[in-house]
Amino acid sequence: MSKIITEDCSPRADSILQSLRAFGYETATAIADIIDNSISANAKNIWIVHNWDADKSWFAIIDDGSGMDENELREAMRMGSKNPLEVREVTDLGRFGFGLKTASFSQCKRLTVRSRKNNNVSTRCWDLDYVNKTKKWSLIKNAYETSEDKLKLFQKVDNGTIVLWEKLDRLIDNFEEEDNKASYHNFLNVIRKIDNYIAMVFHRFIGLGGDLSIYLCKPDEIENTNKKIKAWDPFLKKHAATSPTPVEPLHVSDILMRGYVLPHYTKLNEMEREYAQGMYGWNAHQGFYVYRNKRLIVPGTWLSTKYKKEDHYKLARIQIDVGNVHDSDWKIDVTKSEVIPPSGITNNLIHYARLVRKEALEVYNFRGKTVQRSLNLSRRFVWKTKILRNKTKYVIDKSHPIIKDIIAEINGKSKFITQLIRVIEETIPIATINVKNSIDPDSHVYEDSIDDFASIDIKNRFLKLIRANMDGGMNKNEAASSALLTEPFSRIPELEVYIDEIKE
């Protein structure tokens, strides 16, 4: 080609901006993207301000970071203001140069940003209705008069930035006055999700060792320090019963993994259980937690290991720290909510996950007890599995001490008990259990209480089993420990209170 001939083929402003609204943000993930910019600007305080006013409701995110001058703000409002291939500061949480705009447009039609740096105040505004009217990339250099009252909140910081969202059409869609109550309750639910999500995603910034404070408040609560969001630590690092595994490099030395096996739920009080399950539930939060510069990207997934989320592995959580230099390798998406690890590290992930899952399974099954390993004792289950023609069948173990004892007590009628057991085995609602487990896996929980088994006099049967174990040749310690590993006793925390007394 001897000569290059060109013509201008700029994209239509109205079409492009409407297309950018289709990125998969929820309100909480969109706000998290704005907070990323505040953290990159070295903010120490961030306020998420929300105000319900029906179809005139609005959000503002304010920070006391370094702020932007006129040129910096204009560039920040430009589409694709950063090249993802550029070398950035190691603490930079941005990547594509779209976050501020795409996150905002996913929620609102009017984005106003005001920033102060060295006493110089700059303002820019994207109004999608105005762009649709002009069909041009018309960035407004001042704020609407109706926005100025909200922007006054910005006066509380010397340097920093306020991001104002108005015309929340995606959040308050097709608002009608008669449906005001329903819209308001939906708005409150969104606020609760924001609280939980920010507490999870930025927990290493606002929790132990962090120096950032994030507040979620109404406009008149901006001075209220009680509105500070409290961090959610998915690993329960401060709990005495949490078991960390050794740190292991992943593929390259600057990507590190560390597993945590959470305490069995009997080791947690009611408040701790509710805290540990997080915003998505116990089962959903198992697996790998991928962090990019301490910012959580994925809150629980087994990545490319092909492992599934199963109830008996729900105590396994693994932290992976990835620097922003590995963004392209890990295919972190624009919304910073999904990752795809490099294919070459799959075996490393599988190996480490297998170790953590194995330990988590032991805690799940044995409630953290070490008696089996120290005394070489095995746990006794009431149910056992049989494989028939490559199919799994569940049957009651008639040699189980409790079952065997009950059959022996019914003189001359053991055949009726055997028939009853057979009926129970043949009518297990497996399909119902599978469906329920797929819909709500956290709903299947044992209720550990002596009262649940009072009809069979659980304590007396427990003592009887210990005596039988001793008659079989075990010493007192082995007899009590073996009984404690036998169902249903293994599921009753109260029995541990009696163990020392029983051994005596």
Summarize the structure.
This protein has 504 residues and is of the alpha+beta class. It contains 18 helices and 14 strands. The N and C termini lie far apart (97 Å).
What does this molecule look like?
The chain is of the alpha+beta class. The chain has three domains: 13-227, Histidine kinase-like ATPase, C-terminal domain (Heat Shock Protein 90), CATH 3.30.565.10; 243-365, no CATH class; 374-503, no CATH class. Helix content is 35%, strand content 17%. It contains 18 helices and 14 strands. It has helices at 13-20, 27-40, 70-76, 99-105, 128-134, 145-151, 180-201, 203-206, 270-276, 327-330, 346-366, 371-375, 401-409, 414-426, 430-439, 458-471, 476-484, 494-503, and strands spanning 45-51, 58-63, 110-117, 120-127, 160-166, 213-217, 243-244, 248-250, 252-261, 287-292, 295-301, 316-322, 383-388, 391-396. It has a six-stranded mixed sheet with strand order 4-3-5-2-1-6, sandwiched between helices. Strands 7, 8, 9, 10, 11 and 12 form a six-stranded mixed sheet that branches. A hairpin with a 2-residue loop joins β13 (383-388) and β14 (391-396). α16 crosses α17 (476-484). The model is unreliable at 83-88 and 90-96 (pLDDT under 50).
